[in-house]
Amino acid sequence: MKSTSQSMIRWVSRTAVLFALTLVIQLLGLPQFITGPLVNAFLLLATMVVGVSSGMVIGLFTPWVAFSRGILPAPMGPMIPFIMLGNVTIVIVFFLITTRRENNIGFLGLGIVIGSIAKYLVLSQSVAFLVSVPPPVAKMMQFPQLITALVGGVIAIVIKQALGRTNFFKNQS
């Protein structure tokens, strides 16, 4: 049986690597329709590979880092708590649907679709009812978020399947 400290070290190191990769994607300054799916992919990949808490931690920190580095424009500042909530929502919904079914492609797909819709609802309803942002920002927080979450989910599954064909998951327990 592995010790708790070994498990914690593994969790921290894998979460840190996935968080670093997510930050690199954000710092490249690519368009939303490239960056968004990749960030969502890393949130879901962290959830699948490391655990729900890893996906949540990455999802909570990425909006703040993006804002502090100027990647997230100032008019989107009021959206940060809702982006965080949207990220945590997709992670938790995905996790709940796929728990103990992580090798079932149907449940992975279902988790992605329902998780993406839940994230979309959090973000679109926040700009509709809770936060006053300029119309272009409001538009960015609506339908494009659904698309980027869905595409990110597909990317995450492809990466996980590729990792599964390597020795990545051996000695994970």
Automatic annotation (TrEMBL):
Name of the molecule in the record: ECF transporter S component
Domain of life: Bacteria
Assigned keywords, A-Z: Membrane, Transmembrane, Transmembrane helix
Transmembrane segments: 12-30, 42-67, 79-98, 105-123, 143-163
Source organism (scientific name): Candidatus Atribacter allofermentans
Keyword Transmembrane helix set for record: yes
GO molecular function: transmembrane transporter activity
UniProt keyword Transport present: no
